[in-house]
Amino acid sequence: MKSFLRNFGLVVLILGPLGACGDLPRPFEGAGREGDPSLLELRDTGTVRVEGGEDLPEGAAKHLARAMARALRSRDIPAYSDSAIGGDYILRPNITANLIDTGASVDVTWVLMRPDGLAIDTTSAQGQLAADQWFAPSPTGPEEGSLAVPKELVEKVRDLGGIAQDPQQETYDALVAQSADKIAYMITGDRTALRAAPVMKVALIDFAGAPGDGNAALARSAGALLQAKGIDIDNTDIGDHSVILSATTQVTPVDKSKSKTPVDRVLIEWVIMDVDGSELGQMTQNNVVPHGSLDARWGTIASLAAQAAVESLEGVLGQIANRKQWLLRGDKKTAMAR
Q1: What are 176-218's pLDDT values in tens digits?
Q2: Domains of the chain by start residue, with CATH
Q3: pTM passes above 0.85
Q4: How far apart are CA 177 and CA 182, in angstroms?
Q5: Are the beta carbons of 282 and 317 closer than 8 angstroms?
Q6: Of 195, 313, 295, 191, which is closest to residue 249 (Cα–Cα)?
Q7: What CA–CA distance (Å, rounded) separates 230 from 84?
């Protein structure tokens, strides 16, 4: 049992951190279009120079920086990322990344700075990148030169021109959306965007298949852990801003010929769904316990299983919130104190 308790939290395959940053990075120094002044003409209006990130492959770092610059421009803040000079503000990402079996999990802390290097404030977001997005080639062509084109107009022109939305761009746009709202507030003091964004609610339903008190114990532990992270849990008022988290458990005896002592295999599939039933994300846990040990009370095992699941599912929920332009946590838990 002790061996199980030590290992249950490792059921999500994580190959290892790519690096937790110490000093905030200054990547791509001297790179980009230094001689092109077209994006620097509005410096006196509060331009933002977005830097790349060291703990990402070069292509992914440039996609991330361009996505943040696009997001700020759509919020009427002049921003660019393809030059290493200028800017009334510098926006620098501090990135922690872990490889997982489907790609990479990233935690991005954006640091808003003055040109003299003095940090003004920070905001963080989490998300996941598929393997092809993690190893994406660098974007081709120059960065968009117009600094404040409304998003609706950009989408209309793209649709009328028959131009397909770049899936790389779409993924990175979702990753930066929530942070861009907060950065816009840091610069302008306008809380409109923060107030307008709805807060995600998570409903814990359809926990099924576990013997003993497993279904209730898993739901109770997952709910408590998500609430401790500032995420709203609401199983009764399921509406347009809700997602559903469910878990299906299978406990089956392992063939005695394959084990010296009788054991049960525990398979837990966690699924995040939209309210219409479409799947948004999932993960599976697989482990063994002494035979019959979960027939009555799950106890600590439910807490360990839920903890391991929530550590990964939090990033998925953050990415879903970004894509839907929701807040992962309520305003009182995310907005910077002033």
Answers
A1: 988 898 898 888 877 666 667 788 999 999 999 999 999 999 9
A2: 14-196 (no CATH), 198-324 (3.40.50.10610)
A3: no
A4: 9
A5: no
A6: 295
A7: 37
